[in-house]
Each structure stands twice: as C-alpha cells, then as structure tokens.
Amino acid sequence: MLLVLRQIAELVLEFLLDCVRFPWWWYSGGLGAVGGWCWQRFSETRSRVSLGLWFRHFFTPMYGDYSLAGRAISLVMRFLLVWVKLARLSLAAVWYLILVLGWLLLLPVTLLMLLT
C-alpha cells in the first residue's frame, strides 16, 4: 500500500513539474525546432527560386537569340519572371513568419480560452 501511495505521489509531482516545464520548452526547444524547420523550408524555396541567377543573367538573351526582337522579348520576359519569383519568395517569407508567430501565440491563446 505504501508503494502505491509513493508511486501516486511521484506521478502527481511529475505531472506538476511537467506543467511548469512545458512553457519553458514551448518557447525554447519547441520554438527552436519550429524556427529551424521554417528557416530550412525558406532556404529551400530561396534555392528553387534562385533570384541571384536570374539577376546575373538578366540582360543575356534567352535561347541565344541575339536579334533585336529576341533581346527585347527576353528582357521583358525576364523582367516579368523576376517579379513573379520575387513575389513568390516574399509570400514564402510571410508564410513562414506567420507560422512562427502562430507558434508563439498558440500557447497563450489556448490558456486564455481554457481559463475563460
């Protein structure tokens, strides 16, 4: 009987310690994991979009067409594609920032909803 009471007391103590340690983990280890995941995905998106490569070859004619019309069409197309790629990269940055901010706000909002 004494062993059962001791195990129950240890279980209750462990539960209370977990309740205290959980917010610490949420804003340290959990935030680091979410932030690292978001940064990795953003880096992959940045690599796929490759804006630096597009800017480096901005004035190079596409498909080796060095005629005046080919240069003009290439310049217009690259201009449009750079804007589309820049918009995609910006949307990805905003999306991952929203995910990190959502992680930061999820715990307080949940606790507030539970307490009211």
Give the SSE layout.
Blueprint: H1 2-49, H2 51-56, H3 68-115
Helix pairs in contact: 1-3
Molecular structure report:
The protein is mostly helical. The chain has one domain. The protein contains three helices and no strands.
| Biggest pleated-sheet summary | none
| DSSP helix fraction | over 70%
| Shape descriptor | rod-shaped
Distance, first to last CA: 40 Å
Structural class determined from secondary elements: mainly alpha
What is Rg? 26 Å
Number of helical elements = 3
Strand content: under 5%
What's the number of domains? Answer: 1
Number of separate strands: 0
| Average pLDDT for all residues | 94
SSE order in H/E notation? HHH
Low-confidence spans: pLDDT under 50, at least 5 residues?
none
Task: Write a brief structural summary.
The protein is mainly alpha-helical and 116 residues long.
Keywords:
single chain; 116 residues; mainly alpha; 3 helices; 88% helix
